[in-house]
């Protein structure tokens, strides 16, 4: 059976529908099977949908019911091709990336809103190839994290870059970032109104008013540290006040004194800056609220040290 070129203007749902019509088979049957909280992003949900056609079935997942439906159709098309029942080769789902209803740009922005990251920036960094077969490369940048995507259209390249960024962000057990750290009195003020709406998506952010706030309450993080053993907090305070210690040493000694599990990496191979340099990362593993801080050199250590000073209300210590 000759392989059919994938039409970039068609979605997996359309391709599967046309395949059934061509083979005079019943239309695909889609069934929504459930939803659950995404373990990598607690403020988001993951939906699942199953599809049956031509005697086979597959299950897809996505951040919306429509996304999960597309994913289910895509997986079933792959299965049918492997079984010799279809001449549509979709072994690489990047063929459909530009036309899937899933908006990767909005998805990246939603994650940034939920985790208090900077909004992503996009740039077309390369275009090459002849006019009949161009290739574009887009860059998605959030702070110092950069991910790139390549496609035959600008839209597809931008979506591909966002898709790579989503994989990176979801791999981070992050609910904290440098931008979320506040002194205790400011956190308490934010916590006064229990009924305030919490913004979870980019659409809500751009339509919000000043009474709305982002993410998980900062005061809850302070309470976690306040409930630690007093002797451990006192030991951490002595380390913070020790003028003989360098800031980078304090960044490891303070969490050890508090009895917290953490991981600090210099030149983390999983993250890189705009210039291509590997970043330093600090991950707090044992708290009720995970913390992930990244940066370069002294700026990185200052961020980690400032995080613990604010969480422990050590603002009076230089």
TrEMBL record:
Q: Which UniProt keywords apply?
A: RNA-binding
Asked whether the keyword Secreted is assigned, the reply is no
Entries under SMART domains matching the protein: DSRM
Question: Which stretches make up the DRBM domain?
Answer: 11-82, 103-171
Would you say which domain of life the source belongs to?
Eukaryota
Cross-referenced Pfam families, in alphabetical order?
dsrm (PF00035)
In terms of PROSITE patterns, this protein maps to:
DS_RBD (PS50137)
Q: What is this protein called?
A: DRBM domain-containing protein
Q: What is the organism of origin for this protein? A: Aedes albopictus (Asian tiger mosquito)
């Amino acid at each position: 059976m000759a392989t059919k070129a994938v039409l970039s203007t068609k979605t997996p749902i359309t391709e599967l529908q046309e395949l059934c019509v061509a083979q005079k088979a019943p239309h695909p049957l889609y069934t929504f099977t459930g939803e659950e909280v995404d373990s990598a992003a607690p403020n988001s949900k993951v939906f699942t949908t199953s599809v049956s056609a031509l005697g086979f079935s597959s299950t897809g997942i996505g951040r919306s019911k429509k996304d999960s439906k597309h994913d289910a159709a895509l997986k079933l098309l792959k299965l049918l091709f492997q079984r010799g029942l279809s001449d549509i080769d979709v072994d690489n789902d990047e063929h459909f990336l530009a036309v899937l209803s899933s908006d990767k740009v909005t998805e990246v922005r939603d994650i940034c809103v939920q985790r208090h990251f900077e909004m992503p920036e996009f740039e077309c960094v390369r275009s090459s190839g002849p006019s009949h077969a161009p290739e574009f490369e887009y860059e998605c940048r959030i702070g110092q994290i950069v991910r790139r995507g390549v496609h035959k259209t600008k839209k597809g390249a931008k979506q591909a870059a966002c898709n790579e960024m989503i994989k990176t962000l979801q791999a981070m057990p992050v609910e904290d970032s440098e931008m979320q750290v506040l002194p205790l009195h400011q956190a308490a003020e934010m916590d006064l109104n229990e009924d305030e709406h919490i913004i979870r998506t980019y659409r809500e952010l751009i339509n919000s008013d000043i009474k709305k706030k982002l993410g998980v309450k900062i005061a809850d993080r302070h309470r976690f540290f306040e409930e630690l053993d007093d002797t451990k907090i006192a030991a951490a305070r002595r380390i913070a006040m020790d003028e003989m210690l360098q800031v980078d040493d304090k960044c490891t000694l303070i969490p050890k004194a508090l009895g917290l599990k953490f991981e600090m990496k210099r030149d983390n191979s999983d993250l890189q800056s705009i210039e291509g340099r590997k970043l330093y990362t600090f991950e707090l593993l044992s708290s009720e609220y995970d913390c992930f801080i990244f940066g370069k050199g002294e700026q990185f250590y200052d961020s980690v040290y400032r995080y613990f000073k604010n969480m422990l209300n050590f603002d009076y210590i230089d």
